[in-house]
């Protein structure tokens, strides 16, 4: 099965528009030919998102790494100018002020203080010690799949469930609250403008999630344990966090802590299903799994674009004058397929040895949950390959539906078939 970039690159127009639109089904299905053209034209471009907001997008690996470590660029939304705020900062009040002051939107020294509160929970040695428990969870999800189904949706059956179960275990979310979490609440990070017909439903989801977070805080305050959530509540009660910072950090954990792993499972499995020889080799040589997961994240990262960064004053960025308060975003996917850094970058190479990718970012905002995500992906991919022999797509690849998220990549469903199902597979379209 050929890489989609091979099929579509020749039809791309030679001149890039200004700004470059970053939306639409074809773009979400395969953004890589466009990213290649942007890299060739220069390291930074003005781009347009479906909400109407424009930004400056950095594409090459070297430029991306420098941008992510550039101390001139801050993440706090207060740095955004009026043009950005009008179209991009659209979460309504009071929720914006109460839920958007988490780690992703903070700069040192506040960022340093807040990050210190979560690092122990995601420390490599701690999460590695939980690997056997994660394996039990993954096996239980496969065991729950119905043997009489002729196809299964791996998103509904596995990818949308496993990361949340792991997260709940790691952060100390008690079972009675974990059972009530709705995956739909994660959609509140997708921009829905004030004039959008979906705005009322968006605001309803936002209020529901905020109410759920309040329940989590009350529960952990009333029955404290030794998990991360209890420690964050204690930090609030001890004056280390404001109420808004506490709620925002729980918001970030519940949304950013699981949905990207769900999406990364789908992009990894799609890549392996496109390359049955690599899938067969990985199934036969499970010792390759850690290196394979790194290559799969490089090839198609679930975090396609970073969140916003801003300059405090007009400045030069990679040879382009960028106004203060304009949003700057880095394409992690484009950086990870830069041929200057990764030879033959569109190829899935399980033996690749060119060094680290940028799927978890770089600099002070490097993902604090990277070690956990790596273990989750190793367990998830390893379990699916070992437990589902003959694994293959159940629909033509062009029928896969890619999520329309602005910053993320993944499939909404992943219908597969296999030769010898475990005792029980969520049929496609049913949960």
Automatic annotation (TrEMBL):
InterPro entries: Cyt_P450, Cyt_P450_B, Cyt_P450_CS, Cyt_P450_sf. GO terms for molecular function: heme binding; iron ion binding; monooxygenase activity; oxidoreductase activity, acting on paired donors, with incorporation or reduction of molecular oxygen. Signal peptide: none annotated. The keyword Ion transport does not apply. Keywords: Heme, Iron, Metal-binding, Monooxygenase, Oxidoreductase. Residues 1-23 are annotated as: Disordered. Residues 1-14 have a biased composition (Low complexity). It comes from the Bacteria. Belongs to the cytochrome P450 family. This is Cytochrome P450. It comes from Streptomyces klenkii.
């Amino acid at each position: 099965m050929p890489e989609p970039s091979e099929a579509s690159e020749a039809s791309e127009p030679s001149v890039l528009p200004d700004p470059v639109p970053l939306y639409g089904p074809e773009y979400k299905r395969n953004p890589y030919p466009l990213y290649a053209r942007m890299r060739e034209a220069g390291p930074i471009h003005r781009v347009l998102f479906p909400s109407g907001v424009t930004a400056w997008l950095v594409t090459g690996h070297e430029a991306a790494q420098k941008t992510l470590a550039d101390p001139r660029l801050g993440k706090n939304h207060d740095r955004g100018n009026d043009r950005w705020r009008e179209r991009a900062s659209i979460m309504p009040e009071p929720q914006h002020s109460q839920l958007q002051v988490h780690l992703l939107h903070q700069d040192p020294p506040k960022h340093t203080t807040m990050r210190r509160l979560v690092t122990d929970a995601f420390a490599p040695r701690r999460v590695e010690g939980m690997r056997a428990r994660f394996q039990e969870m993954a096996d239980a999800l496969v065991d729950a799949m119905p043997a009489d189904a002729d196809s299964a949706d791996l998103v509904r059956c596995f990818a949308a469930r496993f990361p949340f179960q792991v997260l709940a275990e790691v952060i100390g979310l008690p079972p009675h609250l974990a059972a009530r979490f709705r995956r739909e609440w994660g959609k509140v990070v997708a921009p829905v403008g004030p004039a959008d017909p979906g705005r009322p439903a968006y605001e309803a989801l936002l209020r529901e999630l905020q109410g759920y977070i309040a329940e989590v805080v009350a529960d952990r305050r009333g029955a404290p344990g030794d998990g991360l959530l209890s420690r964050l509540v204690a930090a609030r009660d001890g004056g280390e966090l404001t109420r808004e910072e506490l709620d925002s950090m729980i918001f970030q954990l519940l949304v950013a802590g699981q949905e990207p792993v769900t999406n990364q499972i789908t992009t990894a499995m799609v890549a392996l299903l496109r390359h049955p020889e690599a899938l067969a080799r990985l199934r036969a040589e499970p010792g390759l799994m850690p290196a394979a997961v790194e290559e799969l994240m490089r090839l198609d990262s679930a975090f396609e674009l970073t969140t916003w960064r801003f300059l405090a004053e007009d400045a030069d960025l990679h040879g382009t004058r960028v106004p203060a308060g304009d949003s700057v975003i880095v394409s992690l996917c484009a950086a990870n397929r830069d041929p200057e850094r990764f030879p033959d970058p569109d190829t899935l190479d399980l033996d690749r040895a060119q060094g680290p990718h940028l799927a978890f970012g770089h600099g002070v905002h490097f993902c604090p949950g990277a070690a956990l995500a790596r273990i989750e992906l190793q367990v998830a991919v390893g379990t699916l390959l070992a437990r589902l022999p003959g694994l293959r797509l159940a629909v033509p690849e062009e029928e896969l539906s890619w999520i329309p998220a602005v910053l993320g990549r993944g499939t909404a469903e992943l219908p597969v078939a296999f030769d010898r199902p475990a005792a029980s597979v969520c049929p496609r379209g049913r949960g």
